[in-house]
Amino acid sequence: MNTRQVMELWKAWKADGVENPETLPKHVAIIMDGNGRWARKHRLAVSRGHRQGTEALREIIRHTDDLGIGALSLYAFSTENWNRPQEEVAALMQLILDFFASEIDELDEKNVRILILGDKGALPEKQRETLIEAERRTAGNTGLRLNIAVNYGSRAELARAARLIAEEVRDGRLRPEEIGEETVAGHLYTAGQPDVDLLIRTSGEMRLSNFLLYQNAYAEFVFPEVLWPDFTVAEYDRCLEIFAGRNRRYGGRQA
Length: 255
Ligand code: IPE
Ligand code: IPE
Ligand code: MG
Description:
Layout: H1 3-15, E1 27-31, H2 35-41, H3 46-67, E2 71-78, H4 86-109, E3 113-117, H5 125-138, E4 145-152, H6 154-170, H7 181-185, E5 198-201, E6 220-222, H8 233-244
Parallel strand pairs: 1-2, 1-5, 2-4, 3-4, 5-6
Helix pairs in contact: 2-3, 3-4, 4-5
The structure holds 3-methylbut-3-enyl trihydrogen diphosphate (2 copies) and magnesium ion (MG).
One 3-methylbut-3-enyl trihydrogen diphosphate is lined by residues 31-33, 75-78, 81, 205, 207, 209.
């Protein structure tokens, strides 16, 4: 998509009576849910559902980049997902390797900067090395910030931030009375990035499941019914249109 096509999108939204047709989010977060139900629906193994999910993922990353949205955070594997059957966890771990093997060249070429949210230390060695390498290779890029949450839990992230801040206080680099909201934000994995503007969770579930609790404080939530492997660019545009029609007040009283 180019600038002209973005303008076309906005014109269409305006024609639909959307309130703020030029408003694109700066940061989109997506809980990619419904792979298991998609597999069941098609009488396929759950691992096939996850694989199909990565196909949707490719298109959504590309479209986010085309639209010029600054940051995209994707929930790929939660700290609670370790509780799934061992076979399924193994399939998801394999998909991580496959995804980076097939996508890293194009992402790097497109100037995408990859950041992994979550504790890489607890991952199997191959996965850990792949993720560290993807971050290292794209660290100097200045385009779309692609945050991929792997072994991520928001409560663990907040506990980690508290630990890092406590260490600075202990070492005399920070005084307790200096600790403010920015201090907390600055010790999250997403430090330096804008808050989430739009949170999308597919498959009709309406919960956060421990994803970016702090960063979603004033996010707009959209819950499309569609299962993640069926989530298309058209569905994504519809979510963006809904976002553009929302009236964000942040506790104030502006119209
Ligand atoms: C989301 O799909 C992907 C991951 C959690 C990795 P699910 O596997 O949770 O799909 P459902 O919720 O069972 O349909
Ligand atoms: C959240 O989905 C995690 C990911 C999408 C990676 P889950 O399917 O694991 O969440 P719950 O169990 O329905 O809350
Ligand atoms: Mg699920």
